[in-house]
Amino acid sequence: MSDSANATARIPSGRKSLAASSERIALGPLDGRYSGAVAPLVDYLSEAALNRDRVGVEVEWFIHLTNNNVLPGTEPLTAAQQAGLRAIVTEFDAASVQELADIEKVTVHDVKAVEYFIGNRLADLGLERLKPLVHFGCTSEDINNLSYAVGVKGAVEDVWLPAARTLVAKIAEMAEENRAVPMLSRTHGQPATPTTLGKELAVTAHRLTRQLDRVAKTEFLGKINGATGTYAAHYASVPAADWQDVAKGFVESLGLTWNPLTTQIESHDWQAELYADMARFNRILHNLCTDVWSYISIGYFAQIPVPGATGSSTMPHKVNPIRFENAEANLELSNALLDTLGATLVTSRWQRDLTDSSSQRNIGVAFGHSLLAINNVLGGLGRLDTAEAVLAEDLDHNWEVLAEAIQMVMRAEAIAGVEGMEDPYERLKDLTRGQRVNAARMQEFVSGLGLSADAQARLLDLTPGKYIGIAESLVDHLQK
Ligand SMILES: O=C(O)C[C@H](Nc1ncnc2c1ncn2[C@@H]1O[C@H](COP(=O)(O)O)[C@@H](O)[C@H]1O)C(=O)O
């Protein structure tokens, strides 16, 4: 194509700026086309939710210090004052987000802005005198680490884990339904000892469940021990208090596990552990997506068309496995972030650097891509029908997979003293390696071996579809 032809193909200059639109237009897909699917995470992992949690932690610290008479000159707040303080959190809304943003423009410090935001509300509660108690003894990370721990815990326990458990339950249900449906295996992509479709799905459900059980046991650690984790400011100002006890009680009151030994930052090791488990779950799910995609491709699953939907824009016959393809991509994106977070959050130069602040802002994105993938896999699985006839036909075209069974029966016969059972592996290899062997040829071979009557009857009864060991009952392990 000539240069001038290229030039005319460009989007014309002078177009309206989308960035200047009065409706804010999302840069990324999680806040755009997928915003509905990831909306449940907004209340836990958005910047607004982080700020609300920061306000919540500051407010609870204020109440904790007063209720426990930690500082001379304080006394427990009245019920109305406590309710008023907590209302700052429960009433936190879009206007609060804007007010905080306006304060932050001046402070150029996000946590300092939270302190002022709360301080501005104390006079109305008759607590003006206690303004210095807001953020008392705290470094920003005291508030940040607790807020992130509360937010991530909520996102895991209320959103991600329930969604993941629903998906695994669906896979387990499919495993149950297909427990007795024989299927040709393909190790190295080549026909191999058959299994059942249900048993293969059960393997995946079992693997995913193990990862979810690990996630469910996550220890969400928190600390509140000052600028370098020494309680120096606390003891300088209030020497009589048992500050470790105050801190431990506070962290535990938030539903977290107290970390007694840190620098300025909570060390984030628990986050790395959690993200590794989530990433492993994502990887196993990715494996399911590519397997199911391949099974659809060879006709083992039929896809139930969505009424009104289009498969291909040009090939009208198509129903594409797009839910699984979308999930694959989103699991990869989630893992790229989870891996980065896990790898980088565990390091901080000397007593702190601020890199964690910037990377933790993407925790919600990592969760969002995973949640989206989980939704898509769930939707995709819900539109699959097992094509049992196709699976059966495939088995019937691969009688040579019985070679393993025959040579193993011959070995057992030899050990039991039956004559003429020499070189079983080699004889079956001569018969089957790289060749198609049909039912008649296989049975003729078996009949000519001189097996004991019992062994011969057993082998003549065997078909590829029956050569599945105890695959069907192995699905029961899922119930345990
Ligand atoms: O309690 C403190 O603040 C102690 C201070 N360390 C800090 N700890 C936590 N936050 C801090 C720190 N420093 C800055 N900021 C503020 O963090 C915000 C970073 O914003 P972004 O780059 O968007 O992630 C952005 O709002 C920053 O202003 C120290 O000097 O050790």
UniProtKB/TrEMBL annotation:
Residue span, Adenylosuccinate lyase PurB C-terminal domain? 348-468
Write out the entry's keywords from A to Z: Lyase, Purine biosynthesis
**What protein name is recorded for this chain?**
Adenylosuccinate lyase
- Does the keyword section mention Lyase? yes
What PROSITE patterns has UniProt attached to this entry?
FUMARATE_LYASES
**Any transmembrane segments, and where?**
none
What InterPro entries does the record tag this protein with? Fumarase/histidase_N, Fumarate_lyase_CS, Fumarate_lyase_fam, Fumarate_lyase_N, L-Aspartase-like, PurB_bact, PurB_C
Alphabetical list of NCBIfam families matching this protein: PRK09285.1
- What task does this protein carry out? Catalyzes two reactions in de novo purine nucleotide biosynthesis. Catalyzes the breakdown of 5-aminoimidazole- (N-succinylocarboxamide) ribotide (SAICAR or 2-[5-amino-1-(5-phospho-beta-D-ribosyl)imidazole-4-carboxamido]succinate) to 5-aminoimidazole-4-carboxamide ribotide (AICAR or 5-amino-1-(5-phospho-beta-D-ribosyl)imidazole-4-carboxamide) and fumarate, and of adenylosuccinate (ADS or N(6)-(1,2-dicarboxyethyl)-AMP) to adenosine monophosphate (AMP) and fumarate.
**Domain Fumarate lyase N-terminal per the UniProt entry, residue ranges:** 32-327
Show the Gene3D superfamilies listed in the entry: Fumarase/aspartase (C-terminal domain) (1.10.40.30), Fumarase/aspartase (Central domain) (1.20.200.10), Fumarase/aspartase (N-terminal domain) (1.10.275.10)
